[in-house]
Write a structure and sequence with these properties.
Bound molecules: nicotinamide-adenine-dinucleotide
Number of strands: 12
CATH class of the largest domain: Alpha Beta
CATH architecture of the largest domain: 2-Layer Sandwich
Oligomer: single chain
Radius of gyration: 20 Å
């Protein structure tokens, strides 16, 4: 066997394994391996594809977002795709990314004003809300990024999803964010599960994801879910910067992920290093810091690659295994 067929074989094997774990995680809310184990498989595939770009195929998990929508739900097509994020594992990766952003913006007259926004990366489930004339009309999961599940009634049970917006929002507005469960609420919920003789849930992310993707909204209503918004899909055009869009969402009465603005990548790196040390001081599960170019014009100039925007990157923390009890996962209870 030649080295070429070996590599091809390994790539196919990795793709098959990753597809299997994607299904367990995104579709069934029941992962079998830790995020660190998954990330190691994904990282190996990404590295092999990087060395052999001729072997990259459109159906590779490195080119596709999330998992397919679950049968049983109506499907929602996202007018603005819900993408994933490129990852930075080390602070050096942030500096490399900054250099790439500057290179791509090249002649941009505004390059002097390049600013970055940092936000905590919440480990929950991405959803898109839709408001028409200020009224909540639909809610959807990210699904495969293009088509998600219609979970309108389930999201309506969350207090942080208002029925009506205040302060004259655009006719169509799609706030996007993460549904999650605060750690104290998760512990209380699991305590009640155990007291009732039921098995506890593995971690807040799985409980949140499983709770949103319930066919009966009454079950969702019993779960201690909340939501932070961190962006806008359709209706986001009028805002000149990401930070002004977040301020506007707050003004409309939505719960917005706190953010900071930086005028250098050094400031961003400091912020990431701080949170890597203090992640457990936050009352909910976070797995990194998301860094975004603030200017919408610069975002547009940078564009996207297959599954992630070029104008954002997630600095991922080292994995924390303590809260994951993978052998005790419950599916769709
Ligand atoms: P991602 O989680 O690395 O990044 C994209 C997501 O970040 C967005 O969709 C959004 O939901 C979320 N996010 C949180 N806070 C945000 C903020 N402030 N701004 C913007 N987005 C924010 O990418 P992904 O493709 O959703 O998931 C990949 C990760 O999921 C892997 O690295 C792995 O850790 C985990 N995973 C684990 C398994 C497993 O079997 N254990 C399987 C598949 C995926």
């Amino acid at each position: 066997m030649t080295e070429g067929t070996d590599i091809r074989g390994r790539i196919e094997e990795l793709r098959e394994r990753i597809r299997y774990h994607n299904r367990r995680y995104y579709v069934e809310d029941a992962p079998e391996v830790s995020d660190a184990e998954y990330d190691a498989l994904y990282g190996e595939l990404e590295a092999l594809e990087g060395e052999h770009p001729e072997l990259v195929t459109a159906d590779s998990p490195t080119q596709r977002v999330g998992g397919e929508p679950l049968e049983g739900f109506e499907q929602v097509r996202h007018a603005v795709p819900m993408l994933s994020l490129a990852n930075a594992r080390k602070l050096d990766d942030l500096h490399e990314w900054d250099a790439r952003v500057r290179r791509l913006l090249g002649e941009d007259e505004e390059i002097e004003k390049l600013r970055y926004v940092t936000e905590l990366k919440i480990d929950g489930l991405a959803v898109s809300l839709r408001y028409e004339d200020g009224r909540y009309v639909r809610g959807a999961t990210r699904g495969n990024g293009t088509v998600g599940e219609d979970v309108t009634a389930n999201l309506r049970t969350i207090r942080a999803v208002p029925e009506g917006l205040s302060d004259d929002p655009p006719g169509v507005l799609e706030p996007r964010g993460e549904v999650y469960i605060p750690l104290d609420k998760f512990d209380e919920f699991n305590g009640r599960q155990e007291a009732g003789g039921k098995r506890p849930f593995a971690n807040p992310r799985n409980l949140a994801a499983g709770s949103i993707r319930q066919l009966d909204p009454k079950i969702t209503a019993e779960r201690p879910l909340t939501m932070f918004c961190y962006g806008i899909g359709e209706g986001g055009e009028p805002y000149e910067s990401h930070s002004s869009a977040l301020d506007a969402l707050k003004g409309y009465g939505l719960r917005v992920n706190p953010y900071k603005v930086h005028d250098s990548i050094e400031g961003v790196a400091k912020e990431c290093a701080y949170w890597a040390e203090h992640r457990e001081s936050v009352g909910y599960q976070i797995d990194g810091v998301v860094v975004k170019v603030d200017s919408r014009e610069q975002q547009r100039a940078l564009g996207s690659v297959a599954k992630a925007p070029r104008w954002a990157i997630a600095f991922k923390f080292e994995p924390l295994a303590a809260r994951t009890r993978l052998n005790e996962i419950i599916i769709n209870v």
